[in-house]
DNA sequence: TAGTATTTAATTTTT
DNA sequence: TTAAATACTA
């Protein structure tokens, strides 16, 4: 029978009232049945889910193992687990909390034999997918140049997200790409199964297939999970939607939390419609809106709402806040990307002098390529920064190599891993030999790993003769057999010894350390291998085999677990996408230009334009106290400088909440309040470049007509003219240097105790091309301001 | 087979 | 511009 709505006891009510606002409380104690929580940015969403789980377990006496909480990221799952543990203690461990993928993987490990895979299946990442795909082109009679593996992979992924089988997909194929993808999709899926491997999409799709083909299992899970809670529901795709729906079908205790205004993963197959249509799926659902924002100033929230208001379809909610009005939003017009980056660096230094910590700042850009200019400016000023979402640990070549050995030990059928390591380190098994091996395997009608095993067995005494004679040269055959025996030895060892011992054995038997040290960047790479060993040592206590399996699972599903350093001493650089869920006191958004945000690829597509808008909204709502929106007059795209118009998101903001400045923080384009008011706020330019001009006139003088396209769209711009004073160079040219040194000279600016060396070459334009060396890792930077200290080399 | 020259393409990326 | 992937040469 259903649980009846439990009255909240006065004591509990008091407890909750102290910690939650009334909407939050409603959400936490909502009765059984479908529940839609529309949680605006900064409205305490995580808190509400955690409290609701705690409430279910503590007050309604729902067994923790009967609660399933689903998130999109491991980080979100981790945070939630922590908060629930803080509320109900160790019992929280029994709550099933995880990502869609990790939860599905767990179920599949248990039940996948029901649909024709083995429990030891390997999970392929994007890279592995590509390797597999590339192998299939010749067989499909296709040219990877015409339809790139990347494009095909994304087609296949889209198809899987929509639950199209290869047959479904080929029926709907229309374009040439789709025909090609259809033919590869079928082979790809066969290839996966042959390798006993699944890709990320399969984790969801195969779970659905399992539910379909083994209804008893679905039923068991449905009964087990009396409450299902899903976070970030605006980002679910069709497969995830169906999973949730099926799981909750028995008890109908489904809580979903999300914000359609923050849906930014449509391009990955997510569909906002599932949150927008939740009420149709569950007409009896209860809706709670979390509309009070605890994060941002009134000004920032107001501007974000103005952006949000331009969306086509959305759930209505009215975000509000009791926070201060705060400062106006600073809109900076910079000359170019260097100027833009310099502005950010200067502003950070200025605010730091005012008491902000470096960890309070974040720079959020639309494209990763923006990070470079910013990094250069930061390095130049020796500002500490960290980039979120750079190359992941587990995606590094050396790490993937070693992991591939471990995977191959665990799953001998794993073709992709086998082909990855069979000649790494080099064993003289080149492309020719590998091709022969593939061909021979297909002649025998077996997989590559299987063929290799047969070849080795044929060496032994009394082995049956091979049906098709191996085509290899003696040398190649010896190498192949040698590799296979190596793998067999390692597999035997894996049965007996712990993971750390096995890891060391792999490294030793393959001489991997020597190999990688000899590569470029070898010491760093070797360091990564050592780091991987540290990760491995966490599994030291486990049984042989179990440790290996647990390790491989984590590698696949926790993809490097991007450790964002919690340091309060580094500025954070990240994309707008990866900013979701975070908050910072001060946020800079560069590239507020037409074609960047909204991105040019979204032009002309209403849905994609909406998504760009939501992306802008996400970025702005990350800011707690100060928000900077920056655009350039000129932006260099692929080497060619182009005039850039301000973003329509910029020009549609209410003027009275903005302050316009140039890249020195000086008032520019004085609309509304006039220049003096702005100038008094915007601080002095003295910190900018010591010894240089202390003040600049406004970039734009009131007066005549507008002619520059980059001014179009600014509020009030029509009455202004671009009669600007001569823009100063970004930083002073090295005046003193110019007299003493000549073009082509190599000079040293500084060297630091930590091994950092700043040196440069004077170039034609009076700029300097600078090389900053951090312990061996060279980095080229453009620099203007530092005075050279000594000449290292004269141009001849 | 490995290293070097040329060609090509360039949003976002929770798992 | 640049980075990566492919083609070409020693």
Describe this structure in words.
The chain is globular. α6 (126-140) packs across α7 (149-161) and α16 packs across α17 (370-380). The termini are far apart. The chain is 43% helix and 15% strand. Residues 1-5, 670-741 and 764-791 have low confidence and may be disordered. It is of the alpha/beta class and 796 residues long. The chain has a seven-stranded parallel β-sheet with strand order 13-14-12-15-16-11-19. A six-stranded parallel β-sheet has the order 3-2-6-7-1-8. It has a five-stranded antiparallel β-sheet with strand order 25-24-23-22-26, with helices on one face. β17 (634-637) and β18 form a beta hairpin. The protein is built from 30 helices and 26 strands. The chain binds a DNA duplex (15 and 10 nucleotides) through residues 71-76, 99-102, 105, 123, 125-126, 145, 200-201, 203-204, 232, 235, 264-265, 267-268, 366-369, 372, 389, 426, 428, 430-432, 556-559, 575-578, 580-581, 596, 599-602, 611, 615, 636-640.
Question: Key features?
Answer:
disordered N terminus; DNA-binding; alpha/beta; seven-stranded parallel beta sheet; six-stranded parallel beta sheet; globular; 796 residues
């Amino acid at each position: 029978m259903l649980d009846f709505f439990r009255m909240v006891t006065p004591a509990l009510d008091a407890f909750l009232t102290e910690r939650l606002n009334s909407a939050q409380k409603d959400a936490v104690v909502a009765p059984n049945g479908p529940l839609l929580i529309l949680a605006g940015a900064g409205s305490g969403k995580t808190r509400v889910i955690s409290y609701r789980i705690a409430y279910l377990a503590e007050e309604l006496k729902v067994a923790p193992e009967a609660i399933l909480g689903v998130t999109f990221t491991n980080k979100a799952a981790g945070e939630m687990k922590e908060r629930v543990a803080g509320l109900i203690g160790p019992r929280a461990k029994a709550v099933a909390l995880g990502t869609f993928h990790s939860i599905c993987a767990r179920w599949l490990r248990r039940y996948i034999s029901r649909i024709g895979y083995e429990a030891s299946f390997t999970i392929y990442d994007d890279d592995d997918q590509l390797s597999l795909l590339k192998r299939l082109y010749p067989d499909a009679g296709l040219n990877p140049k015409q339809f790139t593996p990347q494009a095909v992979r994304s087609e296949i992924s889209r198809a899987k997200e929509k639950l199209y089988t290869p047959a479904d997909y080929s029926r709907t194929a229309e374009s040439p790409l789709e025909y090609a993808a259809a033919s590869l999709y079928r082979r790809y899926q066969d290839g996966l199964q042959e390798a006993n491997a699944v890709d990320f999409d399969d984790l969801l799709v195969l779970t659905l297939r399992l539910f379909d083909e083994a209804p008893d299992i679905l039923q068991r899970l449905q009964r087990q999970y009396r409450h299902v809670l899903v976070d970030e529901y605006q980002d679910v795709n069709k497969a995830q939607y169906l999973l949730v729906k099926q799981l909750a079908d028995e008890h109908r205790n489904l809580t979903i939390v999300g914000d359609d205004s923050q849906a930014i993963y449509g391009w990955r197959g997510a569909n906002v419609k599932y949150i927008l249509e939740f009420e149709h799926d569950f007409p009896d659902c209860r809706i709670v809106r979390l509309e009070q924002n605890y994060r941002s100033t009134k000004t920032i929230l107001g501007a974000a709402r103005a952006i949000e208001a331009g969306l086509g379809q959305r759930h209505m909610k009215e975000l509000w806040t009791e926070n201060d009005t705060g400062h106006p939003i600073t809109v900076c017009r910079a000359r170019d990307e260097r100027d833009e980056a310099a502005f950010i660096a200067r502003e950070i230094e200025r605010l730091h002098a005012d008491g902000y910590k470096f960890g309070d700042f974040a720079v959020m850009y639309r494209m990763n390529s923006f990070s470079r200019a910013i990094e250069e400016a930061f390095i130049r000023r020796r500002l500490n920064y960290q980039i979120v979402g750079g190359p992941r640990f587990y995606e590094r070549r050396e790490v993937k190599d070693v992991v591939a050995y471990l995977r191959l030990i665990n799953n001998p059928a794993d073709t992709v891993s086998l082909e990855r390591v069979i000649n790494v380190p080099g064993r003289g098994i080149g492309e020719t030999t590998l091709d022969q091996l593939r061909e021979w395997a297909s002649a025998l009608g077996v997989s590559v790993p299987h063929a290799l095993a047969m070849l080795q067995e044929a060496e032994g005494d009394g082995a049956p003769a091979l049906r098709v004679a191996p085509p290899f040269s003696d040398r190649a055959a010896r190498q192949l057999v040698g590799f296979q025996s190596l793998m067999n030895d390692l597999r035997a060892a894996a049965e007996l010894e712990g993971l750390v011992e096995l890891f060391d054995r792999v490294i030793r038997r393959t001489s991997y350390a020597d190999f990688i040290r000899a590569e470029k960047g070898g010491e760093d790479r070797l360091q990564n291998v050592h780091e991987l060993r540290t990760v491995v040592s966490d599994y030291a206590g486990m049984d042989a085999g179990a440790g290996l399996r647990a390790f491989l699972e984590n590698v696949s599903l926790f993809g490097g677990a991007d450790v964002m350093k919690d340091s309060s001493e580094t500025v954070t650089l990240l994309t707008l996408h990866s900013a979701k869920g975070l908050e910072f006191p001060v946020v800079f958004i560069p590239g507020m230009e037409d074609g960047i945000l909204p991105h040019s690829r979204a032009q002309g597509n209403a849905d994609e334009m909406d998504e760009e808008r939501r992306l802008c909204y996400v970025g702005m709502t990350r800011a707690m106290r100060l928000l900077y929106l920056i655009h350039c007059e000129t932006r260099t795209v692929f080497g060619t400088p182009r005039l850039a118009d301000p973003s329509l998101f910029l020009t549609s903001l209410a003027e009275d909440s903005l302050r316009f400045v140039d890249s020195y923080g000086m008032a520019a384009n004085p609309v509304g309040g006039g220049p003096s008011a702005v100038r008094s706020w915007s601080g002095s330019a003295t910190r900018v470049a010591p010894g240089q001009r202390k003040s600049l006139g406004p970039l734009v003088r009131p007066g005549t007509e507008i002619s520059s396209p980059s001014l179009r769209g600014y509020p009030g711009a029509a009455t202004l003219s671009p009669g600007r004073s001569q823009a100063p160079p970004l930083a002073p040219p090295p005046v003193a240097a110019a007299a003493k040194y000549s073009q082509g000279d190599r000079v040293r600016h500084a060297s630091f105790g930590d091994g950092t060396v700043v040196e440069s070459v004077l170039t034609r334009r009076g700029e300097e091309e600078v090389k900053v060396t951090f312990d061996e890792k060279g980095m080229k930077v453009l620099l203007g301001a530092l005075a050279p200290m000594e000449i290292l080399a004269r141009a001849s």
